Amino acid sequence: MLLTEIDHIAIAVNDLEAAIAWYAEVFGAEVEHRETVESDGVEEALLRVADSYVQLLTPTRENSPVASYLAKRGEGLHHVGYRVANCAEALEAVKAAGGRVIDEAPRPGSRGTTVAFVHPKASFGTLIELVQDNGPTSH
Question: What's the whole-model pTM score?
Fold first, then answer.
């Protein structure tokens, strides 16, 4: 089995501060990690839930994929991140099975992870992020 656990559930939001405040007020959730990922044009806040995260995402530029998502679909579930031991191996398995990928090769992700995205048309309408945890900076 290439998937080892759920790394995160990503939720696209228009107002990151309001979303963080809502999760804190309603669930008592606290931000464990916050980062701007320039390459993806997003700012994220990670809220730990057991060994996984709720990832709140907001665009930092108008041409980011998350900005496009929000314009087309509004706020809500954006993608599921699955933890894998080896991102390159998992990505090749998707390709070998005839799956459509967004990233042809793994690339750096937030928290020092290595990531690659699988196109939702290859995975029953769900955008999937393969996430390789590279050590202590990843948690």
Answer: 0.91
Residue ranges making up the domain that contains 47: 3-138
Mean pLDDT, the chain cut into blocks of 10 residues (139 residues total): 95 98 97 94 96 97 95 97 97 95 95 96 94 76
Q: Sheet containing 52-59: which strands, arranged edge to edge?
A: 31-37, 42-49, 52-59, 3-12, 76-84, 128-132, 114-118, 107-108
What is the length of the chain?
A: 139
Q: How many domains does the chain have?
A: 1
Query: Which CATH number belongs to the domain containing residue 33 in this structure?
Result: 3.10.180.10
- Rounded CA separation 77/11 (Å): 4
